[in-house]
Every structure is written in C-alpha cells, then in structure tokens.
Amino acid sequence: MNKWKVAAVGVCLIAAGACAGETSRFVNTVSGVSNAVPPGYVPPLVSNGSLCMLIDYLGCQAQNRYVKMTPTIFWAGRRYGPPKDQLIPFGHFETEVEAAAGETQSVPARWTQTLDTRSAHVSCRNVYGNGLTVETDVFCPFAGDLVVVRKRVSAANAAARSARLTFTYRFTATGNENKAPRRVTCASAWNDASRRAEFRFQADAHRPCEGLVAVFADRAVAAAVDGQTAALSADLALDGGKPVEVTFCLLFADSLDGKDFEARAAKLQALALRQGFDGLFAEHRKAWDAYWDESFVRLPDARLETAYNTAQYHLRANATRWSFPVGIFNTHWAGRFFGWDEMFCYQALVSSNHRDIARRGPEFRRAGLKVALDRAAHYGKPGLFGARYPWETLEDSTEASPPGFWMEHVFHMSNIALAAWYQYLYTEDPAYLENTGYPVIRECARFFFANMVYDLPDGRVVIGKCTDLERLGPAKANPFMTSCGAIYTLEAASRAASLLKMDETEAAAWTRTAAKLRESLPEENGRFVPYAGCRDESVATLGGLFPYPVFDETEPRQRAAAYHYMQHGRAFGNMYQMGTSVCAWYLGWMAAALAELGDTVGPARMLREAADGAGCFGEMFEINEEKVRRCPWFSTASGNVVYALNQMLVQNREGRILLARGVPAAWRDYAFKLACHGDLAIETEVKDGRLTRLALLPGDPSREQQRTVVLPAGLAEQVAFNTVSVRNVMRQEGGVRLDVHVKGPVELVQRR
Questions:
Q1: pLDDT computed for residue 499 by the predictor
Q2: Which of 337, 420, 650, 717 is packed most tightly, with the most Cβ within 10 A?
C-alpha cells in the first residue's frame, strides 16, 4: 500500500472528494499516512514578499530537513553582516493537540496538505488515531508583516468532550546563527495589557535595528513564556464533532521600517483581532484576485497549466519591496539580488501584465545607480566609465558576492539594462524612461563601451575576457552570450537616447559598436559557438534569441546553433557539472528560444518536461533529480517557465503582435490574457482550433495607436473580423495580418 499520494495537477484529493475544472488548476495536493512523505517532498511556500516560510504537512514548522531546508521564518531585508550576509532567521512555530486523557497527538494516522495558489494559502488536514482531526490554514497577508494560522479541531468520537491545543513559537533558530560576530539579542515576556507574548530584539546586523515579534490568539489562552520560547494553549470544548476554531498570529515590526514600530505593531494586532481570520482572509483573497485578474492562461495540458500557475504564485510571493531574489531563504544565496536572475523573474511578470510589480526591478537598479557608478569611477570623479552593478546585491545596493570567478561576469549588466528597457516597451511611459529607465540603460552601455569593448588590430571589435556561463569556466574571450548582451544593451541605449533626444554623439558610437560586435561573434561550421575553440555544448549559444532578442528566425547561424544544442546539449543541461537531466531553468530558456524561431513542437515539449520535473506542489527546483536535488522554490526557473509559455502565445516585434507562434497543432482549445508592448493587453480564445475572441485592451483608453496583429493562418479560417477596428486584413502564406486602429478596448473578431 502506498503511504503517500500526490495530486499536483488537475485533481484535488480532499475530504469532499475529487474536484476538477478551472479552479483545480490552482490546487496542488499531497496525501499520506503517518509521517511518510513522497520522495523529494518539500513543504509549500507561504510568503507575502516580506515574511517567507515553508509550512509542513502538520500545518506547522517541525524542524525536519527537506532538500537541505529546515522550515524557518525569514524576513526580507533583515540580515547579518559579513562575511556571508546571511538572512536573520526569525524562528519557527509548532503546534500540538492533546486529548482529554492527556495523550499528545504527534503522528497522524493520515494527512492531506494543499497549496491553493489562487488564494495563496496552505491548508492541512491531520486525522489522528483517537478520532481527533486538526485542520490548519496558513497565509501571510499583504496588509502587514503577519502570519495567520487558523486551527480547527473536531472529534469523530462523541465521547471526546475536550482537547488542548498548544501553539509554540521559538524565536531561536537551529544552527549557529546567533554566535558572534553575528548577534541578535532578545528579551521575552507576556504582556497582559496587549494579551500577547513579546520578543523584543536588537540586531547587530548589516543594518542595525530593534524590533519585536508578538504572538497572540483570538481567544483566551494560557501562556508560558520561557527564554526564547512562548507556548499559547487553548482549552477547547468539543461538541458532537462540530469543529472548534482558534486563530494564532505572529506579528513582526522593527525600526528598519520606522522608529514607530511599537505603534505599528499595536495597530496591526488591533486590525487582526477586529477582522478575525475571515476578514483578514477576505482582504487577502481580494489582493490576490487583483493579481490574478491582470492575466491568465488556460491550456489543454492540465499539468503544464498548473505548474504555470504555481510559478506565477511563486513570482508574486517572492517579490520583495526591493526586487526579486532567487528565494527569501539562506539556502538560496541568502535572499541576495542577482542582476542576472532577477531579469528572468522580471520578464515573466511584465509579460504577464503584472507591470506595477515588475517595475520594482528597474526601480531597484535605479535606486542603486550611484553605488554602481562609484564602483567604476576614477576615485569618484565624473566620467564616462559607466556603472558596474554587483554580481550579488544587498538591499542598499552594495556588493555581497563571495570571492570567485563568478565575480568576473558582466552579462548581468545586460540583464539589468534589458529589464529597464522592457519596462518602457511595455508601458511606453516617457517619464519612466527619462527618470528611471534611461539612466540605468545608459550607464550599462557606457560600462560595456568603456571597459569591455576591444578594437583588435585586424579590424574586429570584440568583448574582452570575462566569465560567461560559469560552466564554461573563467576568462573566455569574445564569448557569444555576453557579446549578445552587450549588443542588446548598446542598441537599446541608442534607441532610448533617440526617443529622449539625448546623448546623440554617444548613441551613434553605441550603434556603430553594436554593429561591429555583430560581425565578430564566434562561429564555426555555420553556427554560433560559445567561444572560439569551445569543445563543450552550452545553452549560451541560444543567447541571441533568449535572453537577448538580437536575432530572429531569419539568422541561419543562430537557428543552427539552437538546434545543435537541442540535439547535443542535454549532457550540459544545468549550470553545474552534476546531474543527468535538463533543469527547469534551462528548459524554460530553451522553450523561449525555440518560440522565437516559430517552432511549434519544441517549446511545449520542453515546458511539459519542466512541469513533469516539478516538485510535489508544482514548484520549480534549480535541479530536481533523484540523486541531485538543489534549491526548491527556485524563482529563476519559475520566471523562465512563465516567460517561455507567454512567448509561445504572444510575441512583440517592432509594433507587431505575433500570436501563437509556438503553439503546437494539438492544442485545439486554449485562452489567455497577456501583455503587449505599448501599454496593451491582449485577450484571446481559441476553440476547436478556431479563433473565437481577440481583444486589445489598452491601459489608457483615450490613447490612439496603430498596431499590427499577425495570426497563424489556421486560426483565422472562417473568422469574420470587426471592420470598425480592423482596417486591413492581409492573408499571406503561413499567416494573416491585421492592421488595427486602437482607441479604447477593441474586439477584433466579429461576434456571431
């Protein structure tokens, strides 16, 4: 008999029975007996982008280890200083239920755990041998730094009249994090006036601060506070199997958000007690509904759609007030910000029409521009040396990378510039471009121009030695992917300068240099290669399609390089020299590149492989193999999977909107709402292989613009277009071109 069961896609195995349909594609459920968990099980993520944690199948954070992760509460931006700038762990919570006879229930007879990504919460159901059932719901609202934990206790045995439920919070985490020179001191007490246990701490940290953690409940409890542990116990009268509820809250406030943290804590506690679980959860659902309403994707492949939804949930839950780390965990490079990785999250968010969240990335880099300028300046003197952003960045924009050859990367400068430029392309906001985007793009271009571009005696212009993808090793001259990033950066800077009518002389030099770099890209046997003489295969040879759209399907050397890697590169399917499969991050990368080529077979196959390799709750790992598992809830992979699928459905090319370029012929029924360049969203529905709805939805209804929409020929057969908005229909080989006048929301398909 199997001790566990995973229902990660399309089916929800809960007490009420099986459920299917659209809602279930946001639901990921795991079931088991006793304390057995599936191979590779990692608890689901609960986060509001500030507080971040894993919640296990018991509905708490028992100190078990899952793929090197032990459930702990982390608080974004709160970190120790050097040498490792680790995040400060803020403890964990556990619960236990005690029957009337005094027997503590620790191992359930059977259990079920569900992550509902639509409502952004985790629920657990634990049934114990004596008939007691404990149900748990956990979420973190956007309203404040609050963890909300509701427990519902019931008894199948009518003779069971009472139970004691205890919620224990331990401020001290496991390990040696509190040893000098990394110091957090804490004093604890029960506050009768506030009806809460308080842990008042001082952190001698990267940014010194003081603050408090408060633990309280929505009903009278017996409290025991001892050192760095608080236990709140509720005695429950059970009545004929009717559940009895208790809601516990953990509240966090500190001086990094202002010296008024005491007042803010009191206000947040009052709000929590006034609204109760139902009120807090209703506001929480409303906030997440607003996120989900900005876009959607519905696919005939249920497993892929659910993995996509989990990745979308992950991207929002991982969005800090600064930018997008790989993860808000110490196991994930301590929540530091990589200019390289954050762009993959950024692209996924902005193409999914989450533009206000996405802009945090470029705005973070704009806020850190002075630090990056000082890094490259001549003793702080003004000049045209550009900015050099850290490889790993802290919240104050300073460097946090440990020494190593990865510090010789420069392609993250291109990713930072690309995100800053994409934000303008998607919004066409001139104020943003002038004040935020262009200052970042320009200094990235200046950096390449002044520091990395070399004029060789034979007339070639190349990028100098640097670390390209780490697997290729250090000191590679004129590496293909880094060069593509430099080309994209220089060309984007020139275009932005032209729009703003600024820096004309520099912009002309950037354009000339980009053209010369294109001529010098390394190639062998009619295809681009990672660098001259490279004997290894590398996903870097896809770099002119993704992440940098320097080429399109008309460049034969790029096409040849892409398909060569697809055929020969699986042994090089992740960043490290380990594992035997292709990691989800690379699969998303490959799918996005093939979609750019108009491939209608490879992208879906790659993304389905990523979905099949996802964790129990649809989460992406850095590597997820039986013998090699690294970094579950890896945001870079989530970003690539989302962006690649979006690219299969919608691409933007110089005023043209290309639909369904990467959609396989087998997909007969699908729908989506995604972002386009020019402050537009597009909503599309296909039924039985025919287009039934196509609408353009501008952010500014008063703005007029002309757009071209290109459809595959098959979608447009027997479709009548709305002649009010569609000014011209041109049927050509392989597709249909619509010239559209946009003013306000426009429906392009004539309703029948």
A1: 98
A2: 420
Handedness of CA 549, 554, 558, 564 (dihedral sign): positive
Structural domain including 734 reads 670-747
Neighbours of 292 (CB within 10 A): 18
Q: Write the pLDDT tens digit of every residue in 654-689.
A: 889 999 999 999 999 999 999 999 999 999 999 999
The answer to whether residue 25 is domain-embedded is no
Could you give phi then psi for residue 218, rounded to 5 degrees? -90, 10
How far apart CA 69 and CA 399 sit, in angstroms, is 25
Q: Is residue 334 part of a domain?
A: no
Residues in the chain: 752
Q: Which of these, 641, 632, 624, lies nearest to 585 by C-alpha position?
A: 641
Cα 6 from Cα 110, distance rounded (Å): 14
Count of domains for the chain: 3
Which pTM value belongs to this model?
0.95
Alpha-carbon distances, residue 312 vs 92, 134, 539, 632 (angstroms) = 26, 30, 24, 15
Domain boundary residue, one of 572, 594, 609? 572
pLDDT digits (tens, 9 = 90+) for 123-170: 999 999 878 899 999 999 999 999 999 999 998 876 678 889 999 999
Specify if 196 maps to a domain. Answer: yes
Measured distance CA(444)–CA(343) in Å, rounded: 14
Distance of CA 106 to the CA centre of its chain: 34
Residue-wise pLDDT tens digits, 326-355: 999 999 999 999 999 999 999 999 999 999
274 and 364, same domain (yes or no): no
Record the tokens describing residue 710, joined without a space.
């290109």
Q: What CATH number is attached to the domain comprising 500? A: 1.50.10.10
Quick check: 142 and 287 in contact, CB under 8 A? yes
Whether 633 maps to a domain, the answer reads: no
Over the stretch 454-507, which tens digit does the pLDDT of each residue have?
A: 999 999 999 999 999 999 999 999 999 999 999 999 999 999 999 999 999 999
Contact yes or no for 149/247 (Cβ under 8 A): yes
The Cα-based distances of 563 to 181, 314, 589, 608, 699 in angstroms read 52, 31, 13, 19, 38
Decide: 682 and 673 in contact? Cβ < 8 Å: yes
Asked whether the beta carbons of 278 and 284 are under 8 A apart, the reply is no
Which of 77, 639, 52 lies closest to 393 in space, CA to CA? 77
Percentages of the chain per state (helix, strand, coil), in multiples of 5: 30, 30, 40
| Domain-terminating residue out of 255, 275, 293 | 293
